[in-house]
Amino acid sequence: MARCYDGGMDRKKPARQAAPGPERVRAWIHSVLNPLIEGLEQEIALLAHGEFGWRAGGRFSELIPVLEQRVGYDQQPNLEDFAAENPEFRAAFAKHDELLHSAESAATAIFERLAGDPAFKALVDQSYQRYLAGGTDPLAANLRRDWLPAHAAELLINDTRVLPTYHVLSAFWAGARKDLEAWTRDGDRRVLEARLTSLRRNDESLASRLRGKRRDLAARYDVPWAPVAGGARA
Hints:
With 234 residues, the protein is mainly alpha-helical. It has seven helices and two strands.
């Protein structure tokens, strides 16, 4: 089942006699807008450095969640309330998740092509044989030959250049990467990069809109941008 924001989107906005008051706006700013803005800023920084964190096991990014997961579980009602009162953001939240799923699908397509290609598997095995012939890596005994193609494909998708020395694949990948990386320099890779760029640009636009909304609400209702130390109210 696809992960996607649906907070309040299928619910009718209840009739209200009065505009939101400072308490509700305080909840929106502190428990919804702040974590969403912080989360989007983290995503922008990750994507700007080529960090996507796609994992073959689940076919999704472990670094970039759907937006509603940026808001604490116990604060989900406040997210639904904010979306109901500010419907202009519903489509924006859904668009983020759609772009994320699109990038994940592009990564999955690359993985399935590589993992199912006998020639790619043969090249991985050749790199493995050269790695064993070196005979200097104490971690060699921990490598399983049968899962190397899948791990190599995942590393290529994430454009991993170097692994930390304690990683079981560190020495193997140092020698194998240059032999294998050409396999993703094709149309599939360009599709993934284009979709990640679209996600980053959307994050930048959405983060800017959310910062503007926070600024406007804080000024209109005289609510601080963050909780005041000691629980004092502004």
